[in-house]
C-alpha cells in the first residue's frame, strides 16, 4: 500500500507531466480541414493562436498552404512572406476579413507601417486564387504560392486585429503582435527567430510563475490540508508542505523578479493589474515565510489565531496566483495549448482536493471524536496536530 505522501507526489508528478505535454504538444497536428484537405507539415506559431500547414512541392517550387488563426467574426487575420527582409514592411500578404459580410481574402503588399491595403499583385506568384473560411472562431486561408527565389527558407509574418467602422484597423502593439514573425524552412519545417530574447524571457517568466504559484503552492496547501489527517503521514506531510511551499516561493520569486525586470524594460507599456497583483502575491507570500518564524507553539493559546492568519493569507496567495496567471496568459497570448493546459491543471488540482475532501471527512470526524474521548478521560495533554 503506497503511503499517502507517495500518492501525493505521484499526483503532483502527473499534473506536471500534463502541463509539460500539453505545452509542447503541436496542436497544429490535430487540425482538420474542409473537403478532406491534408497538409504534409505544420507549425504552431508561438503567438496569436495561429498555425501554418503546408505541403511543399520541390519539383516546381510551390507550396500549398493553410493559415489558421483565432479571431472574432469582427476581426481580421493575415499571413504572408517578406521576400527581402524581416518583419512587416515589404511583405506580401493574404488578409482575411468579413468586412464585406462574408469571409473574403485580400492580397496586398505592405509598403509601410500604415499601408493602404489596396488589392495588389504580390511579389511572388500565386498560381491558384486563395480562398478563406471562417468557423469555430478561426479563419483559415488556403493559398498556393511559388516560394520567392525558389528558396525553401522564407521570412514569414502573421497578424490579427479588429475592424473599425467596417474597415481593417491597425493591429494592436501587444508583445504577441510585435513578435509575430519567423524565418520558416518549408522543406524541414523548422523555424527560427520567432522567440526573440524578450519573448523567450517572457515565456520563462510565465512558466516559472505558473509552476510556482499555479502548481507547487496549491499542491503544498492540498498536502497540508488533507495528508495530515492520516496519522501515518505525520510528520511527513509537514516536510512535504514546507518543501512544496519553499520551492514554490523560490521559483515564484525568481519569476516575479524577471517580471519586474521585463516591466521596467517596456517603456510606455505597463500592465497595471498584472503588475499590482504580482506585487501583492509576492508581499503576502513573503509575509507567510516570515510568519513561520513567529509560529507559536502548538499549545499556545495564540496558535489558533496564527492558524487562521496562515490559512487566510495562504488561500489568498493561491487565488490571486490563479487570477494573475490568467491575466499573464491574456498578455502573452501564447499558443492556445498553454491556457488549456493551465485550466487542466486547475481542474486536476480541484478534482484531487474534492476527492481528498470526501475521503478525509470521515477520518477527521473519527479522529476528533477519539480526541474528545481522550480529553474527557483525563488525557488533556494531547492536542491535535498543527
Ligand atoms: C526550384 O528548384 C528545384 C530544385 O531545387 C527545381 O527542380 C525546380 O525546377 C525549381 N523551380 C523553379 C520554378 O525554378
Ligand atoms: C506543382 O507540383 C505539384 C506536384 O507535382 C502539382 O500538384 C502542382 O499542381 C504543381 N503546381 C503548379 C503551379 O504547377
TrEMBL record:
Keyword annotations of the record: Electron transport, Iron, Membrane, Metal-binding, Signal, Transmembrane, Transmembrane helix, Transport
Membrane topology according to the record: Multi-pass membrane protein
Pfam families assigned: Cytochrom_B561, DUF568
Cytochrome b561 domain location: 167-365
Residue ranges of the TM segments: 204-224, 236-257, 277-294, 306-326, 341-364
One example GO MF annotation: metal ion binding
Cofactor(s) listed: heme b
Cofactor: binding details: Binds 2 heme b groups non-covalently.
Compartment list: Membrane
Gene Ontology CC terms, in alphabetical order: membrane
Residue span, DOMON domain: 48-161
Binding site for heme b: 205, 241, 274, 310
Signal peptide: 1-25
Primary residence: membrane
Record's keyword annotation contains Membrane: yes
Record function comment: May act as a catecholamine-responsive trans-membrane electron transporter.
PANTHER family: CYTOCHROME B561 AND DOMON DOMAIN-CONTAINING PROTEIN (PTHR23130)
Protein name, per record: Cytochrome b561 and DOMON domain-containing protein
Organism: Setaria italica
Amino acid at each position: 500500500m503506497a503511503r499517502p505522501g507517495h500518492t501525493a507526489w505521484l499526483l503532483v508528478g502527473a499534473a506536471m507531466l500534463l502541463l509539460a505535454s500539453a505545452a509542447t504538444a503541436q496542436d497544429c497536428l490535430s487540425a482538420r480541414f474542409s473537403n478532406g484537405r491534408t497538409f504534409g507539415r505544420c507549425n504552431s506559431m508561438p503567438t496569436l493562436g495561429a498555425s501554418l500547414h503546408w505541403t511543399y512541392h520541390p519539383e516546381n517550387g510551390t507550396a500549398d498552404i493553410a493559415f489558421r488563426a483565432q479571431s472574432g467574426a469582427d476581426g481580421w487575420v493575415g499571413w504572408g512572406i517578406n521576400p527581402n527582409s524581416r518583419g512587416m514592411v515589404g511583405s506580401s500578404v493574404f488578409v482575411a476579413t468579413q468586412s464585406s459580410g462574408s469571409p473574403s481574402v485580400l492580397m496586398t503588399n505592405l509598403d509601410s507601417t500604415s499601408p493602404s491595403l489596396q488589392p495588389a499583385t504580390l511579389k511572388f506568384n500565386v498560381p491558384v486564387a486563395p480562398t478563406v473560411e471562417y468557423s469555430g472562431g478561426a479563419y483559415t486561408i488556403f493559398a498556393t504560392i511559388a516560394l520567392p527565389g525558389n528558396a525553401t527558407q522564407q521570412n514569414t509574418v502573421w497578424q490579427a486585429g479588429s475592424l473599425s467602422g467596417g474597415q481593417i484597423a491597425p493591429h494592436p502593439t501587444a508583445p504577441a503582435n510585435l513578435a509575430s514573425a519567423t524565418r520558416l524552412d518549408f522543406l524541414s519545417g523548422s523555424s527560427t527567430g520567432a522567440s526573440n530574447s524578450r519573448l523567450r524571457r517572457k515565456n520563462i517568466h510565465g512558466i516559472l510563475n505558473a509552476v510556482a504559484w499555479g502548481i507547487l503552492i496549491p499542491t503544498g496547501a492540498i498536502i497540508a490540508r488533507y495528508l495530515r489527517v492520516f496519522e501515518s503521514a505525520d510528520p511527513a506531510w509537514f516536510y512535504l508542505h514546507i518543501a512544496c511551499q519553499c520551492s514554490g516561493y523560490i521559483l515564484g520569486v525568481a519569476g516575479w523578479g524577471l517580471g519586474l525586470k521585463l516591466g521596467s524594460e517596456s517603456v510606455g507599456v505597463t500592465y497595471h493589474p498584472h503588475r499590482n497583483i504580482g506585487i501583492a502575491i509576492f508581499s503576502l507570500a513573503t509575509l507567510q515565510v516570515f510568519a513561520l518564524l513567529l509560529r507559536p507553539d502548538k499549545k499556545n493559546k495564540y496558535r489558533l489565531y496564527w492558524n487562521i492568519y496562515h490559512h487566510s493569507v495562504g488561500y489568498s496567495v493561491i487565488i490571486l496566483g490563479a487570477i494573475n496567471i490568467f491575466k499573464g496568459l491574456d498578455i502573452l497570448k501564447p499558443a492556445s495549448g498553454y491556457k488549456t493546459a493551465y485550466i487542466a491543471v486547475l481542474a486536476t488540482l480541484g478534482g484531487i482536493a474534492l476527492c481528498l475532501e470526501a475521503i478525509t471527512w470521515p477520518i477527521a470526524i473519527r479522529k476528533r471524536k477519539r480526541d474528545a474521548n481522550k480529553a474527557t478521560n483525563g488525557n488533556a495533554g494531547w492536542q491535535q496536530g498543527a
